[in-house]
Specification:
Layout: H1 2-17, H2 34-37, H3 71-76, E1 103-106, E2 109-114, E3 125-132, E4 137-138, E5 141-143, E6 147-153, E7 155-161, E8 167-173, E9 182-189, E10 198-200, H4 201-206, H5 210-217, E11 234-235, E12 274-279, E13 292-297
Antiparallel strand pairs: 1-2, 2-3, 3-9, 4-11, 5-10, 6-9, 7-8, 12-13
Length: 323
C-alpha cells in the first residue's frame, strides 16, 4: 500500500501542475490528458513465491499458507506447491526421506529402512541405512534376494562366504572419512515387506538343539550358551586383525563381492557437469542382477533427463542438496 499511495500522490501532483498558473483553476475531468490519466491507477508487480514456501505463482494465483504445514519441507519441494504448471498431480509419489523412517536403536549403532509400505511405487527395490560404532558388527546374515551396500562414511571390514565355502575378508573405506564410525546404505531387490527378507545366523542357531550344534561344529555345547536373543542385528565388539584362513578357496577376481570405487579414476561426465562411475557386471562380474552409478554434480549441474524402460531405479542423495 505504501507504493500505491506514493504513486497516487505523484500522479496527482503531476496532473495539478499541468494546469495554468494564472487562474489556479483545477482542471475538469474532461480536460485531463488521457495518457496521464491512465497512469493514476497503481500497478502492483506480481511474482511467484514458491522459493519462499508459498503456493503463489507469477500470475497471482494461489495464496499464502497460514498454518498446518512444515515450512522446511515446503521449501524443499516447490513442485508440491504448484511450481510446475503442467503437473496434474497424478504421478505417484517417488520420494522418501530416511528421516521419516522409524529408527531402530541398537547396542552398536542404529538402522532405518524404506520398504514398499513406506514408498508404494518402489515395488522392486527396498533400502536401508545403518550406522556402526567403532568395532561393532552387523550380525552374520544372508538374503533371498540380491543386495548392494555402499559405504559413504568411515571404514568397514566385510566378510563374505558363498555356497561353495569360498570366503573373502576385505576393508572398505569411503571418500569422506569419519574416524571411528561408519555409515552405509543398502539396496535390496524384490522386497515388499519389512520382515522375512533377512535370515540371521542367530535365528538358525537358537532354533537348533545345542547337542546337534556341538556335534556339527565339533565343539562343546557350552559354547552356544551365550547366543544372543532376540535378534541383535548390530553388536558391540572390538576390531581385530585376526588371521582368516580360506580352506575352500578365496572369493577374488571375478568372484569378489567387493568393488573398490576409491581405487579407480572416476571419469568426468561427457556433459562436463560432474563425474559418473558406473558399476555393473562388466567391471563387477558377481553383480548380475543389480547395477549402480555413483554420480557427482557440480553446482548447477544437471543429470540428463532419462528413464529406464524395463527395470526399476532408485537414487540416494549422500551429500549437499539436490533439486
Amino acid at each position: 500500500m505504501k507504493h500505491a499511495i506514493v504513486l497516487l500522490l505523484l500522479a496527482s501532483i503531476s496532473s495539478f501542475s499541468s494546469a495554468s498558473p494564472t487562474n489556479n483553476v483545477i482542471p475538469s475531468r474532461q480536460n485531463v490528458n488521457p495518457k496521464i490519466n491512465k497512469h493514476l491507477r497503481p500497478v502492483l508487480e506480481k511474482r511467484q513465491e514458491f522459493d519462499e514456501g508459498e503456493p503463489i505463482d507469477a500470475k497471482g494465483k494461489g495464496a499464502p499458507i497460514l498454518g498446518g504445514t512444515d515450512k522446511q519441507i515446503d521449501l524443499q519441494n516447490p513442485d508440491n506447491l504448484g511450481a510446475q504448471s503442467t503437473d496434474n498431480g497424478v504421478v505417484p509419489n517417488v520420494k522418501w526421506r530416511f528421516s521419516d523412517s522409524k529408527t531402530r536403536l541398537l547396542s552398536g549403532g542404529w538402522v532405518r529402512e524404506q520398504v514398499i509400505t513406506d514408498l508404494p511405487a518402489s515395488k522392486d527395490i527396498a533400502a536401508a541405512q545403518q550406522h556402526l560404532t567403532k568395532g561393532s558388527i552387523r550380525e552374520l546374515h544372508w538374503h533371498r534376494v540380491a543386495e548392494w551396500g555402499y559405504v559413504y562414511a568411515g571404514k568397514v571390514r566385510v566378510a563374505a562366504v558363498d555356497e561353495h565355502g569360498e570366503n573373502q575378508v576385505d576393508d572398505l573405506d569411503a571418500t569422506l572419512m569419519q574416524p571411528g564410525n561408519a555409515e552405509s546404505r543398502f539396496l535390496r531387490q524384490n522386497v515388499n515387506k519389512r520382515t522375512r527378507t533377512t535370515f540371521n545366523v542367530d535365528d538358525w542357531i537358537t532354533h537348533t538343539p545345542k547337542d546337534i550344534l556341538a556335534k556339527n561344529f565339533g565343539v562343546d555345547e557350552s559354547l552356544f550358551d551365550a547366543v544372543p536373543t532376540p535378534n541383535p542385528y548390530i553388536l558391540k565388539s572390538n576390531a581385530t586383525d585376526g588371521n582368516v584362513t580360506s580352506p575352500y578357496g578365496k572369493l577374488e577376481g571375478n568372484s569378489s563381492y567387493v568393488y573398490h570405487l576409491s581405487r579407480i579414476q572416476v571419469p568426468q561426465a561427457p556433459g562436463g557437469g560432474g563425474t559418473i562411475a558406473i558399476v555393473d557386471s562388466r567391471n563387477f562380474p558377481i553383480a548380475t542382477t543389480i547395477a549402480a552409478a555413483v554420480v557427482t554434480l557440480e553446482p548447477h549441474g544437471l543429470r540428463e533427463l532419462h528413464w529406464h524402460p524395463n527395470v526399476s531405479s532408485i537414487s540416494h542423495e549422500t551429500a549437499q542438496s539436490v533439486n
